[in-house]
Amino acid sequence: MKKPSFTTLMLIAGLLFLYLPMAILVFYSFNSSRLVTVWAGFSGRWYIELFRDRQILAAVWTSLRIAFFSATMAVCLGTMAAFVMTRFTRFRGKTALSSMVTAPLVMPEVITGLSLLLLFVHMAQMIGWPADRGMVTIWIAHTTFCSAYVAVVVASRLREVDLSIEEAALDLGSPPVKTFFQITLPVIAPALAAGWLLAFTLSLDDLVIASFVSGPGASTLPMVVFSSVRMGVSPKINALATLIILAVSLATFLAWYFMRRSENKRRIAMAQQDAG
């Protein structure tokens, strides 16, 4: 019997390190005991308790809305920033613009959250807005740092686009806006989708910045989970984490399935063209 190589052992160890805690969490989400580390029998009571907890459900709905709108706005702003950085090669202040766009990538979240909090406080004192911190201020804060990630992703894709295709369309009389939407946009669509998913995940997972800029009327899911964990880990958190893992796994599987299906159709079409 052939012994596994060192690389195989390290791969197995890495996978166990990543996924074994998740498997334990899913297993203990069906524990009937209130103690999360003591097994007392199989039960689904904590899923029922989870759906009865209006605070957690409200936090989930708030986080999903903030993440959706933040990711959407971040894609718009990040795409414009990436387009300026890659297509406008010579203008005064390009280095400063690139530095400011990418600064949130390396800026500690504590500093970002504190600076945005001070900004909102001074704006409220000067112009009276925002009167209260809540979903809008969290949305603005998340859009601010998510736009930097989207800009980097989209800019890397724009640098690989063949400019001769766009130049040919412009030479044939296509307006620049029409050229962008009909030629450039379909080419960078995968990068836009990747940037949107990345921004959505970052917004949904953020705790530090949201804690600074949120108010008493808006609590995101990470804030509720963190506050409940400080009081003691509840089995409902295990049930919630299990549902999140299930949703992410299902979304990943569907994305893989449709991408593979599209790739198979493309290969069949190319094979038919070669045969014809």
Automatic annotation (TrEMBL):
Residues 60-255 form the ABC transmembrane type-1 domain. The chain crosses the membrane at residues 6-28, 64-85, 105-124, 136-159, 179-200, 207-225, 237-258. It comes from the Bacteria. The keyword rRNA-binding does not apply. GO terms for cellular component: plasma membrane. SUPFAM superfamilies: MetI-like. It is a multi-pass membrane protein. Its main location: membrane. GO terms for biological process: transmembrane transport. InterPro entries: Bact_Polyamine_Transport, MetI-like, MetI-like_sf. It is found in: Cell membrane. The keyword RNA-binding does not apply. Keywords: Cell membrane, Membrane, Transmembrane, Transmembrane helix, Transport. Belongs to the binding-protein-dependent transport system permease family. CysTW subfamily. This is Putrescine transport system permease protein. It comes from Franzmannia pantelleriensis.
